[in-house]
């Protein structure tokens, strides 16, 4: 159950009965700036669809953070968020509009860019973090979906998220909120203070916020702490045959035969339930033979100490001030700052020892030793953590020139710093502790050790744990300095009305730096590389709004962006040229009647190569791979010998990665078209079609892709025995084979990864929105909001020769979100928020398809093995249920430990079940100070109102939840006091 106690103090007028919503197409407003255009306009709706989320809506629907509400939108796709195991950015929260990638969505705060998150998304590219924006300071959030580079420049490919913070605010609000998950864990607490003051020619708005959220680990959810908890459709042929081999906790292995040397009897039981007796089984799908490679100590709960959700502490501050000079000029300045501490875990620290020669037997061995939570003394002593700081300072002047042109000059600087502390085992210390000093050196150079079995097979004390575990410190920062000047207004009087324009000129300089621990990859394995650099950007844009008829207007825009002056922080300079791109957009707005808008926009977009793609310095890690070329060349694939038991095929190699200086910009084109109809007073409907196409998409070739292509280029055959289809001709094979360096004996020396311009993508769909407001005399006021998205097509081609079949069924096909709000101007009001995600096809949809290796996945369950028995009864149920996110991902192998890597598969489905959509109730107590007036003495009255707010959530369908909200209000007012209609209601 989710319980919370909330208190708030805020100024406001007494509650007023809600006014019916005016028809949007005929709204009479002062000209204001709307996201998607720099031309001020009176109409709320324009040629491009913009979704607006107000602070009131965020509050009514029960969201606590900016990221939470954005993540609930129908336009949001899947991301590697802080809640995903194996994330390279565990304390960051990116947004992925239309599933086109986080780097293709532009984040603006008050219309200005902010610094990128310093660590690259997925270890590859730059992106924006949405979890460091203080929700207490938010006035509204605008989401523009579709290409907008002609207005905003690079990165506005999938769309723009513009977070508008409060300004010109009067009064104060204090809010307390706490809660917990219904199944335990994930306690949360939030306190915020937002307010402001205004004078005759000045204003000051401020906000402070502190938030704490406890982490959630696999142990907090017993059904998610082990490999066999994953959907059966993710199980490999080996898993279906005998279950899962437990992750290695303690193992001594013959490096030549991969045979496990059994630990002394009772060893696994000495670790207090952390380890269990395990057997290393493998299944030859061609012969049907199950091989036992020996006994070892397996981890009892593979994912027990992995984090389902990162814990965090966040502290934010915001200031915005203005000062008027005369009648037409105003100065402004704003400062926002955030400090965050994120706590997270993957595996507990482990060490790989060897290979070495055993002094007693002369065998070449290696050992794997996993440290445990029990040895550490608790989760806190296992946890890694990030310390992050960001700040954004901007200032400017704005005014009116010649009574017809609005102008603004602004400058700003933004900086983001991350310090990452990762617990890992110091290899040298661990070698000394478990193996002792070397007694000599073998003929091949391998050190000779006499294993200290008393230490290797015994639990560590807390002090011994501290001796072996080091805390790696990696740091990173990013920054951007920028200045802009804009001018807008009525240019000339046209034949159908005034022709309006807006022009902008911008210059910016941005940079980043990754600084790993000086001892990384020497004392302990940490995959971080020293990298960084900076570049300049200059831009100019023009936008026109041209009335063609009294009911028809055109919007055209063009922009030129130039990226250059690259400078790498490396000792060896990186020669990078200059990228320049010109983009345009054209839109039409037709209003045949006042209540109907027909609109469409065609736009081009681009995304300049990320600095980390271009300037990334060489990095190297040791990874265990299957040599697919040798598998085919030696004929091992014919006998099922291409697996991790064949040391001639499965071995450790160097995998190197670096940036590509000659990358080109990604380019795109988007089209949107739809209608907005104010049907009757208070009822409006909008329906929009969208289509986005991307070309020259940058893809970072991974090791398995390179190895598969190299084998195909050299042999014309796949590892499964089929014919290999060359996707790019001789030039492609030359590129691929040059990325695999081999030794004289034919084994792989290294694999060279890196980004290239290669892929293309297309997505299309329909967005629909229904809004209804109804005020009744006796039943109160009702508000209905319903949003719908249907994905019509999703196509992605990594290579030009790849099939461009529609893959929409591999993704969520439809999404619905909505809310219903009721109040009667009295003590109570209610809000019900609901969301539903559509179905996805299972990997075995419609048939029992065979795997590439010939294995048919409808194999019946076999008995007789204890790990296999844990999966009893799952097969038929799993074959019928819809696929969850992650079902299509391929198994990956953990570096050097020879454990089946199902974590990435398991993690993504667990996120959906980890308590993020907990059910329960939320109780808040709110105390508000109302500004009231007496008829004869304005602002002399006053009053106190106490609110009790109850919220909760219930499941309405397999993929949907319905939060609800009710509020009771009781006020004590001074005699003769009446509401001041000039003060807006700002109660939270």
From TrEMBL:
Chain residue ranges for the region called Disordered: 10-29, 862-902
Bias (Low complexity) ranges: 10-26
Record's bilayer topology term: Multi-pass membrane protein
One Pfam family here: Plug
Segment forming the signal sequence: none
GO cellular component: cell outer membrane
Key words, A-Z: Cell outer membrane, Membrane, TonB box, Transmembrane, Transmembrane beta strand, Transport
Biased composition (Basic and acidic residues): 884-900
Localization terms from the record: Cell outer membrane
The keyword Transmembrane is assigned to this record: yes
InterPro entries: Beta-barrel_TonB (IPR000531), Beta-barrel_TonB_sf (IPR036942), Plug_dom (IPR012910), Plug_dom_sf (IPR037066), TonB-dep_rcpt-like (IPR039426)
Origin superkingdom: Bacteria
Feature: compositional bias, Basic residues: 862-871
Residue ranges of domain TonB-dependent receptor plug in the record: 45-160
Domain TonB-dependent receptor-like beta-barrel: 343-846
Similarity field: Belongs to the TonB-dependent receptor family.
The protein's name in its UniProt record: TonB-dependent outer membrane receptor
Organism: Xanthomonas arboricola pv. pruni MAFF 301420
């Amino acid at each position: 159950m989710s319980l919370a106690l909330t208190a708030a103090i805020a100024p406001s007028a007494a509650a007023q009965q809600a006014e019916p919503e005016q028809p949007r197409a005929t709204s009479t407003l002062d000209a204001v700036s709307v996201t998607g255009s720099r031309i001020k306009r009176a109409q709320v709706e324009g040629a491009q669809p913009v979704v607006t989320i107000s602070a009131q809506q965020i509050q009514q629907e029960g969201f606590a953070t900016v990221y939470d509400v954005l993540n609930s939108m129908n336009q949001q796709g899947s991301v590697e968020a802080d809640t995903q195991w194996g994330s390279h950015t565990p304390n960051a929260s990116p947004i992925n509009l239309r599933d086109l990638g986080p780097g293709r969505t532009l984040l603006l705060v008050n219309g200005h860019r902010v610094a990128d998150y310093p660590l690259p998304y997925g270890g590859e590219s730059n992106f924006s973090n949405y979890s460091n924006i203080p929700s207490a300071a938010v006035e509204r959030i605008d989401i523009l979906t579709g290409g907008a580079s002609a207005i905003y420049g690079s990165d506005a490919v999938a769309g723009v998220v513009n977070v508008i913070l409060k300004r010109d605010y009067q009064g104060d609000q204090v809010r307390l909120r706490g809660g917990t998950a219904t199944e335990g864990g994930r306690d949360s607490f939030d306190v915020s203070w937002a307010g402001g003051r205004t004078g005759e020619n000045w204003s000051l708005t401020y906000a402070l916020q502190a938030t704490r959220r406890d982490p959630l680990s696999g142990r907090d959810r017993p059904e998610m702490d082990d490999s066999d908890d994953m959907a059966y459709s993710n199980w490999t042929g080996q898993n279906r045959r005998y279950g899962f081999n437990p992750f290695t906790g303690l193992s001594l292995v013959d490096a030549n035969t991969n045979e496990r040397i059994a630990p002394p009897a009772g060893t696994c039981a000495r670790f207090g339930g952390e380890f269990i007796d395990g057997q290393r089984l493998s299944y030859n799908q061609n012969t049907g033979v199950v091989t036992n490679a020996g006994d070892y100590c397996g981890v009892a709960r593979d994912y027990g100490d992995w984090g389902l959700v990162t814990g965090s502490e966040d502290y934010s501050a915001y200031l915005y001030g203005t000062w008027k000079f005369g009648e037409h000029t105003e100065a402004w300045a704003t400062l926002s700052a955030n400090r965050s501490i994120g706590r997270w875990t993957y595996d507990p620290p482990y060490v790989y020892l060897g290979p070495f020669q055993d002094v007693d037997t002369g065998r070449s061995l290696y050992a794997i030793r996993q440290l445990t939570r029990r040895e550490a003394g608790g989760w806190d002593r296992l946890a890694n953590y990030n310390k992050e700081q960001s700040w954004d300072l901007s200032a400017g002047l704005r005014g009116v020139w010649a009574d017809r042109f609005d102008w603004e000059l602004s400058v700003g600087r933004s900086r983001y710093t991350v310090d990452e502390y990762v617990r890992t085992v110091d290899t040298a210390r661990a070698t000394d502790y478990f193996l002792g000093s070397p007694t000599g050196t073998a003929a091949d150079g391998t050190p000779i050790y006499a294993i200290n079995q008393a230490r290797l097979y015994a639990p560590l004390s807390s002090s011994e744990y501290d001796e072996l575990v080091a805390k790696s410190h990696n740091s990173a920062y990013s920054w951007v300095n920028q200045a802009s000047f804009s001018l807008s207004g009525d240019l000339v009087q046209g034949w159908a009305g005034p022709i309006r324009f807006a022009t902008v000129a911008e210059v910016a300089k941005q940079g980043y730096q990754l600084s790993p621990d000086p001892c990384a990859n020497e004392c302990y394995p940490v995959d971080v590389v020293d990298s960084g650099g900076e570049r300049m950007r200059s831009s100019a844009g023009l936008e026109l709004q041209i009335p063609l008829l009294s009911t028809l207007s055109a919007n055209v825009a063009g922009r030129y962006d130039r990226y250059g002056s690259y400078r790498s922080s490396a000792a060896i300079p990186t020669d990078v040229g200059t990228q320049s791109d010109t983009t345009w957009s054209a839109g039409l707005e037709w209003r045949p009647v006042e209540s109907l808008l027909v609109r469409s926009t065609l736009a081009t977009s681009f995304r300049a190569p990320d600095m980390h793609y271009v300037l990334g310095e060489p990095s190297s890690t040791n990874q265990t791979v299957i040599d697919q070329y040798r598998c085919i060349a030696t004929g091992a694939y014919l006998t099922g010998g291409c697996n991790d038991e064949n040391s001639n095929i499965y071995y450790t190699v160097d995998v190197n990665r670096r940036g590509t200086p000659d990358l080109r910009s990604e380019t795109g084109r988007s089209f949107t078209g739809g209608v907005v109809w104010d049907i009757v007073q208070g009822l409006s409907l909008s329906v929009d079609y969208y289509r986005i196409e991307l070309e020259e998409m940058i893809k970072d070739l991974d090791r398995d892709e390179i190895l598969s292509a190299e084998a195909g280029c050299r042999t014309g055959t796949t590892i499964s025995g089929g014919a290999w289809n060359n996707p790019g001709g001789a030039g492609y094979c030359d590129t691929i084979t040059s990325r695999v360096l081999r030794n004289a004996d034919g084994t792989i020396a290294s694999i060279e990864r890196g980004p290239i311009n290669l892929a293309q993508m297309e997505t299309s769909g329909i967005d629909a929105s229904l809004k209804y407001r109804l005020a009744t005399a006796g039943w109160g006021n009702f508000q209905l909001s319903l949003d719908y998205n249907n994905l019509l097509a999703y196509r992605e081609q990594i290579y030009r020769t790849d099939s461009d079949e529609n893959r929409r069924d591999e993704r969520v096909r439809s999404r619905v979100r909505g809310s219903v709000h009721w109040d009667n101007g009295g003590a109570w009001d209610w809000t019900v928020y609901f969301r539903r995600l559509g179905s996805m096809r299972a990997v075995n949809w419609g048939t029992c398809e065979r795997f590439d290796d010939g294995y048919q996945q409808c194999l019946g369950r076999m008995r007789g093995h204890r790990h296999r028995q844990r999966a009893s009864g799952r097969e038929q149920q799993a074959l019928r249920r819809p696929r969850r996110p992650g079902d299509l991902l391929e198994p990956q192998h953990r570096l050097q430990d020879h454990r089946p890597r199902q974590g990435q598969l398991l993690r993504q489905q667990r996120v959906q079940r980890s308590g993020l959509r907990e059910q329960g109730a939320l109780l808040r107590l709110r105390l508000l100070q109302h500004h009231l007036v007496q008829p004869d003495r304005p602002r002399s009255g006053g009053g106190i109102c106490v609110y009790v707010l109850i919220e909760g959530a219930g499941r309405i369908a397999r993929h949907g939840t319905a939060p609800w909200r009710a509020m009771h209000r009781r006020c004590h007012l001074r005699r003769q006091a009446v509401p001041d209609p000039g003060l807006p209601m700002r109660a939270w």
